Description:
With 230 residues, the chain is of the alpha/beta class.
Amino acid sequence: MTADRTSTAAPAAPPGLRCWVPRGVYRPQTDSQLLRRALRREGIVRGTDVLDLGTGSGLLAVEAARLGGRVTAVDISWRAVLTARCNAVLNGQSVRVRHGDLTSAVRGRRFDLVIANPPYVPAPDDRPPRGLARAWDAGRDGRLLVDRVCDAVPQVLRSAGTLLLVHSHLCGIDRTLDRLAGAGLRTDVVERARLPFGPVLRSRLGRLRERGMATGDAMEELVVIRAEQP
């Protein structure tokens, strides 16, 4: 079993990159590829300071390093930390990988670009997820980590720094745009994709419909939100 959020699983690594993903670590999928596309448009050059929050396999951190960035990757899972370190070595890239809870691992530092692909799948309840479910479960409204990223990132962005955040429409695109705008950031949606529910969401379809979070077509829209510090 892999930590599928969506049914259209993208290849584990794009051409030119190697990616090892053990059991219990989120395998790059469509959301990862959307975020990668947005990342590549940011004009990363040598010396750009990049922070990857919730790095998982580390694939996007490796991509940012390959583009010339000075990359720090953070994850609360030790398995993900070790996986990201291995993938950096496999691809011959230098990535500083830290164990920690979001920005607590980089206190006092500022970055030009922050990327994040946090868990965003609505869960049956608000209990902290355990085991494999940590890769996707995010409380009843799917915003357990999304809100924390929105609140924490403005404190670590440099002037004109940028956040790229990917998540599903199920946890509220407009809510995220409003929350980031409320923190003083300029916001826009720069990537969208519509696809069928994956295994986890299909198993919760009845509950999601009861809450008004899903319609009869069982389709999900993924977005990448870009937010820039003035």
